[in-house]
Design a protein that fits this description.
Layout: E1 9-15, H1 21-29, H2 37-42, E2 49-58, E3 67-68, E4 80-90, H3 98-105, E5 110-116, H4 124-135, E6 141-146, H5 153-169, E7 177-179, H6 188-198, E8 211-218, E9 234-241, E10 243-245, E11 249-256, E12 258-269, E13 272-274, E14 276-278, E15 282-287, E16 303-305, E17 312-323, E18 340-345, E19 348-358, E20 361-372, E21 377-384, E22 387-396
Parallel strand pairs: 1-4, 1-5, 5-6, 6-7
Antiparallel strand pairs: 2-3, 2-4, 8-9, 8-16, 9-15, 10-14, 11-12, 11-16, 12-13, 12-15, 17-20, 17-22, 18-19, 18-21, 19-20, 21-22
Helix pairs in contact: 3-4
């Protein structure tokens, strides 16, 4: 029996709508992350998708083709060895779903920026998603120049030059660009190699007090189940620091009207169950909370912590604001008192109203209570032409 492995890192898959993010994630993980009925109907990602996979390397072969996501080598068909297990977070690319992407970026250790070869670079969401990575200080990025099967050699080369210019202008000229075609499995081996070389496993703070951000929540019970067999709700997300054990008692903030003390009834990652999980990768936490409270991602944006890592809770905050200069559309006019903004605090979206501006220091009153830590970075979006556009970020004082 193979040893159960917990994913080491979270890799975001980001980029403009319809550039092939979900198709590429499916090729890397053998899992279609568009599972919600509306996603299937509309053909776009609406919620954060997630899937785990292992990166393998053939012991006998050399070169890029020795790498992949299969247990068997595609060249010699011999068994491959596992190099690393990772979690992928597939973020929506549609302009109306920017808040969903920003909530996922909080969890990324690195990212694949997917840019279609058959469209000019950069597209609007390409710029916004990239700016979100910069805001969170994520430097470990690989660009997948996708859909090269739809263009000529000359068009692909011209698009490649535009991508490199875009990266250089942003100060990321070191980022590798891998031409890919998710539809025809082109250069998946080279992409895996680039990810292994680019995104290292951080030196995690496993001894620190527990902090876990929640991005999904579920009721896993099937209709008609016997009441004696009903399981508690499940929280899905990523541990940012510390460890979590089965049967451990922890806190859920902000909870429902007030913080909730809960008991961990199960821990899993992918198809594997664990008695203890650490920081790194995505995990599902079974709880003793009524599953009705978890249905339909009702607990998305919450925080799991222990006694030593309880957050601040409040409906007012003061931030030091930094606008992103390249996002010209959302920054043509300065922020104004009484203006409404959307704040992404951890994995939670919240609406706030600006009450005071003094230089780059801004006071905001929130529509609902938020949980946060001092000096935490939050994304700020403004309403431009009836669309919420990323404008900059703030550091909580």
């Amino acid at each position: 029996m193979s040893k159960k492995l917990q994913p080491e890192i979270n890799i975001g898959v980001i980029g403009h709508v319809d550039h092939g993010k979900t198709s590429l994630t499916t090729k890397l993980t053998n899992t279609n992350t568009d599972k919600h009925s509306d996603e299937i109907k509309q053909g776009i990602s609406i919620r954060l998708g997630y899937a785990d996979t292992c990166f393998y390397k053939c012991k006998k072969c050399s070169g890029l083709q020795a790498y992949g996501v299969s247990k068997k080598c595609i060249l010699c068909e011999s068994d491959c060895e596992i190099i690393k297990k990772v979690s992928f977070v597939d973020a929506p690319g549609h302009e109306t779903l920017m808040a969903v992407m920003l909530s996922g970026a909080t969890l990324f250790n690195g990212a694949i920026l997917v840019i279609a070869a058959n469209e000019p670079c950069p597209q609007p969401r390409t710029q916004e998603h990239f700016s979100a990575l910069k805001m969170h200080g994520i430097k470990n990025i690989v660009v997948a120049q996708n859909k090269i099967d739809l263009v000529t050699k000359e068009q692909a080369q011209e698009n490649y030059k535009n991508i490199k210019k875009f990266l250089k202008d942003e100060g990321y000229e070191h980022v590798p660009v891998i031409p890919t075609s998710a539809h025809f499995d082109v250069n998946i081996d080279a992409l895996v190699y680039a990810l292994l070389e680019t995104i290292d496993t951080p030196d995690y703070k496993t001894k620190e007090p527990l902090k876990m951000r929640v991005v999904r929540s579920f009721d896993v019970n099937k209709p008609g189940i016997d009441i004696s067999k009903i399981k508690g709700g499940v929280l899905g997300g990523a541990i940012l620091q510390g460890t979590l054990k089965k049967n451990q008692e922890v806190y859920l903030y902000p909870g429902i009207k007030k913080p909730i003390k809960l008991k961990v009834t199960s821990l899993s990652s992918g198809k594997d169950s664990f008695d203890e999980v650490r920081v790194g990768g995505l995990v599902a936490v079974g709880t003793d909370i009524d599953p009705v409270c978890m249905f339909g991602d009702r607990m998305a944006g919450q925080l799991i912590c222990d006694e030593k890592s309880k957050p601040l809770v409040g409906s007012r905050m003061q931030i030091k604001y930094h606008k992103i200069e390249r996002l010209l559309e959302s920054n043509q006019k300065p922020l104004a008192i009484s203006e409404n903004v959307v704040l992404i605090i951890g994995t939670a979206a919240n609406i706030g109203t600006i009450t005071k501006i003094k230089g780059n220091e801004i006071d905001i009153v929130l529509k609902k209570e938020a949980v946060y830590y001092p000096k935490e970075k939050i994304a700020i979006s403004r309403l431009i032409n009836n669309r919420w556009r990323l404008s900059g970020y703030g550091e909580i004082k």
